[in-house]
Amino acid sequence: MGPLRLTLQHFVACPCASPYVVPHRWAGAFRLCIRRLAQTSCMDYDAEVSAVEYAGLAHRPYWVAESKVQMQESEKKKLVKQVMNLGDEGTVKEILSSWVRKVGSRRTRLENSAVGSPGGARYVRYEQVARTVNAVLQDLGRKGYPSAALQVFQWMQLQGWCRLDPHLYTTVIDALGSAGCLDLAEKIFGEMGDSVRKDTVLYNSLLHARSKAGQVEAAAELFDSMKEKNCRPDLYTYNTLMNMHVKVDSGLPKVLSLFKEMCLQGIQPDVVSYDILLAACASKEHVKEAQRIFDAMKKRRVKPTVVTYTSLITVYANAGDFRSAMQVFGEMTAEKCKPNVKTFTSLINSCRRGGHVEEAQSVFEAMKEYGVKPNVMTYNALINVYTERGEQGRAQSIFLEMVQAGLQPTGVSFTVLMSSFKATGAYKDALSIYNQAKQFNKVCSVQTYTEALDTCAKAKNIGGMIRVLDDMRAAACVPNAVTCTVLLVALSSKCSNNIEVSNLLDSLKGFDSKLAQSCHYLLTDSSKPDQEVINILGRCFSSIKKGDVKAWTALSSSLLDALWALGWYRRAALVLGWLCENSNIHDDLCTVMPVEWKLDVRRLSSGGAAVALYQWLAHLLQVAQHVDLLGYNFFDEESSASDSEEGSAAVSVSEDGTGLKESPVKVEVTVPFLPSRTQKAFPKFVTVVCGWGKLSKEEGKSQVQSGVEKEIIKLGVPFRLSNDTGRWTANGEALMRWLLRPETPSRLVLWDMVARNSH
User: Fold this and answer.
1) Closest to 608 (Cα-Cα) out of 581, 592, 586
2) Is the whole-model pTM more than 0.70?
3) Where on the phi/psi map is residue 112: left (φ > 0), alpha (ψ -120 to 50), or beta?
4) Given Cys at both, which of 79, 136, 286, 339 links 343, Cβ 3.0 to 4.6 Å?
5) pLDDT tens for each residue of 579-592
């Protein structure tokens, strides 16, 4: 026993032996040494396990010989079942050690024929153990048992036959990454050291884990680290990065740049690469780009799959191009590519956006001919079609058909139904559907709660809104920008008394949400200085994705309305100034022309329009005072050309509500949309446009018109309503006389009601 063990140890320590592969000329002698060690009569179980460990060094990496070694699927399933049903009576390590002992007790043909074998030796093949345990580790990771997978890996490390094997590290990092345990995967990757060569496959496993977690910057750093260490990225690397940028909605240019870099590196894209590009086109409706990508794919002779055709159909569906979507579907069937349920769901969505209700029903019926069973997403798309058409009865029948088919409705199903009843004013029916949704576990999403809140708000049911907010907190559901927009609208126009306002604000405060807390501070805390208010605004709007103009506009408009309705006039001015500086949605509010100065508030909400009107009049007051001081009587055309530049101006706004001239405390509020300098002349005409038409500039009746009219009448400004109900015009001379009245300056000062009441 002694000489054999000594010889074995010397052999393993031989400098000629690679850490991964024993030279072929030594392999036979090494196996013979192991076999004799295993057949020694005094060998105990520890020596047997040691034989398995040393045998692991006597082979090439086991994944190379995959065609020669077959994994025992039944044994793998049995082990996984034992680990998943593990109780207090054992550990993962004990289960695996017991399995090795059991496998080692089996007699093999080689053992039975061995000369001098005392009753048959227990010999365990390295490939059998390694492949089976490796499969167990992968299966546990896929099924969401990261702790058990980690214990399996630790047992493998204790055995000693995986420490120098990068494939095993790849497997465990993949398993932990798939289970969402990125921290553990990062730790294992960092503890590998220099003993294991980090190849492309190993980097890809951690890259996939970071991409799945949405850590864009960390994934980019790992990608750069690969290239710095001369580890050449492969096709899987680029596909993983491109897919990550599609999921985080980085935009088509970013995905295309990675695609071009991959091609320049000599890596030929596969069908998955093109599918990812088409998916990137779907998010922003890049119809022309998607068609060019599809044509380029066919030129490269890459055969489209059902995923490819479905992705292209989705692009046309998002653009509402039903005919093009059907043409792609026809080409798909002509190529004998069988559509799946996602294909038909995308077709129904294209019908919905194009208003083709009858065609949507035909597509739904055609699914049966193809033998494709509709899923919940398909039913949701069809319910959407009938809801937008105003056929609530038909939408509800589709919902019942889905339930009868044995499918559990999702939050989208209930949300769409609630929206359909809300649109017709059937608020009780909509809330009844919400109560049904609460009976399903984990069905209500933030969209479902937001729809219920909006239903209560339109019904002016503040108590119902508070109950829905309580349900959200109980479900640990965090409000999003749309939810806060609904609450702000309710605060500005739906509450009938201060008690309802206070209760709703208290409910908003109860959420552990940066957005909800920011809105609460802006509407309640009067002790915040200007800079702190600016910082809160930055945190508030940082939760909205860049480029989401619709969400940004809705939240900013509702916030201005709530501030104005609750008496936070000065703070509303600060918010409007910050919005003008940090977005382009309020550009072109002020237009200075040689004869006419115009304020266009059609793109603002009622509260924002009122704030802009006061700041506009305060700026005109400064111009009037300056002109009166210089002795000018009226507009000087020669000086207008140099004074028509646009920029930012400071308007004095008092916190205590005292007069503009007598107030001892004045705070400068930046108004970016006003002209940059105090003009030397007063305009002949001043116009305020509040007609409807945010983008088309069509003047007419507007939702902000009543608010502007109320403030004009309250101030007594000499504006007259033109024949077009969306335009108020004042003669420059008459407006200047009104502005120079002694009582006018104090009436134009914006102050907060809370600050004034405290004085």
Assistant:
1) 586
2) no
3) alpha
4) 339
5) 888 876 666 788 88
